[in-house]
Amino acid sequence: MSIQGETDVDKIIANLVPCLHPDSFVFCTTADRGLVGTLLQDEQLIAFMAEKEGFTVVLSKAAAEKYSLKFDYIARWLTLEVHSALEAVGLTAAFAAALAKENISANVVAGFFHDHLFVDERSGEKALEVLTKLSAKHAARVEKDA
Known about the structure:
Layout: H1 9-14, E1 18-20, E2 25-30, H2 33-41, E3 45-51, E4 54-60, H3 61-66, E5 74-80, H4 91-101, E6 107-110, E7 115-120, H5 124-145
Antiparallel strand pairs: 1-5, 2-4, 2-5, 3-4, 5-7, 6-7
């Protein structure tokens, strides 16, 4: 498998393949390094970020409840299955604009291979629809230009 991702934003958007994960996910915070280690070891973490105030952890709502972590924001998780390069320019702006037109906020986490979006739990299906349409529109344009 090549580790080089696509850099052409039109090709990336044309091949987004958005995937909506089942279940609900939450963002929590903790200063407990041991808990972060346990969550990682138990394969409960989707993502985490070390911040000066503590650790932000993203995990399923069920896992947060199991570990008695507090949360306010409940999200649905979408993965863009296209392998975009980390240095690609314009992808986040393109999908953020499309989602904003539908009044959907997105919290974005970039992985090495894929981008991941967390949207309000009531907006998951609509976000999937918006991203699928965005991709189809770009696919037609890329095909036309080929």
